[in-house]
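user: Here is a favour to ask of a fellow structure person. I have my own habits and do not want them to colour yours. Could you put it straight underneath, so I can go through it closely?

assistant:
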Amino acid sequence: MKTQRKILVISRHGKAPQKRPEEGVGSKDELVPESVTSIYYNTGVPLQYFVTEQGITERDTFLRHSDKRRTELTGGAILAGALRLEPRIGANPPTSQEDLANYSFTGVAKAEDSRLNYSNLKLNEDALRAMGLDAYIRAWSRNPDSDKMGGVDITPFNEVLERGRHCLASMLIELTSKSSQRHFGVAVTHGSIIEPTVMAAIGLREIVNDNDALDRIGGPFDMEESVQIKIDQNPAGIYSATIKRQDKERNVKLYRSLDLDEVIKTQK
């Protein structure tokens, strides 16, 4: 029996076009064309070796995304590249979100996960725009149990960290349980959600005025950026795991970091 590998990719969504002044503030819920191609090549294609070596098909795969279309589109671009999917018509590789509509993902278990949603997260949006994501997360995590920032109601950082832990744990259970048919998972979310989720993966159960928490995961995530969690089961049935961001990879004890026993109990 050879070593069996399973991979979970956690990604921030791709680049979205900004709204025109008359449309309000922020970005549109779509992807710019060049981002679709970039995600396909930079996140999807490098997974082809794993997919081929382990014999992964669409039916071995799941996609979890938020309630925003741009996260589902990002996941589609990753899977099209990783699984070497062929479109019914149109460009291959995809050069726009319209091209992604020509790919069939019927075998993939796709679902929205509300724990990946940005819409149910309360942030001080004015402070976020003024400070930028890096400084905002550092300020947020310095007072991790506070539900206020600058007089504005916010979701406490530790609450988002705990939500990310449960979300991540449930996906890993889906990949590793004996009854599971899944070997490859993709989860796509937003900035300010992906960071606490990755913190949970490396074992941060609670932040207590931790000024280094963001540095311990390599800083905030850019749009399109992702991490890979690799889970290997050796011929003796023993699991080991690593988490990789760009060219940095570290060993993680996921069972201990995420307290999977506790998560399993709460899901029953």
Q: What stands out?
A: The chain has ten helices and nine strands.
